[in-house]
Amino acid sequence: MDYTTGDHRHGVSDEDTPAASEQRIVQQAGEAAKERARSTRHLPLIRAAKLVAPHGEFVCVVRDVSETGVRLRLFHATPTGTLIELHMPSGGIYEISPVREAGNEVGFEFKNRIDLADFLLATPSVAKRGLRLGLAFPVQINSLSGPGEGIVDNLSQQGARFFCETPFALDQALRVQCLEEEIRFGEVRAKVRWRRDSEYGIVFEDTLSLDQFAELAAKLQCPDLLR
Description:
- By secondary structure, the chain is α+β, with helices and mostly antiparallel strands.
- The protein is built from 4 helices and 13 strands.
């Protein structure tokens, strides 16, 4: 091979020429742009989820999501705290932090990049069960067999779980009312679906709207969010 002509006289390969270096820079910039496009690609979505903050558990609706962030519709002011988590119906838990706000919609950034397939996963059993919050409040329970007082410790739009020493039968019709007047939960008609000792699961005759559910959660845990 003749090393006496061209760039080879100076020990310079084609890969080290200015043109080659510029080509590599352009290629790297293109790959970086594609990566940014992938991370900012938002998938439209409408799905109820749970926002967990130091103040409690709150209702939200996922509007769209990307690998790096999510946009949520809230029904009150944004909960604050050093640790905020988004709990999806599929069981996924994601640490998030607010970055922008526009009316009742708030953009959050994921602490770590997520897998969209896992985020969007929903099993039939979870979807049927619906969104549940660990809300605790005292209730008055009335039935044809007599009244009783209990404590609700789990609530969904469709029903609740409560503890009560008064015995009730399966499928028995009940009227449940919150004992805290400022909550204005109202009287709800329900039926007993299951029981275990003093623990009962009931289903409401009329489901709560998502707005009612969200407002009740805020009233019980952090009323200041509604002001």
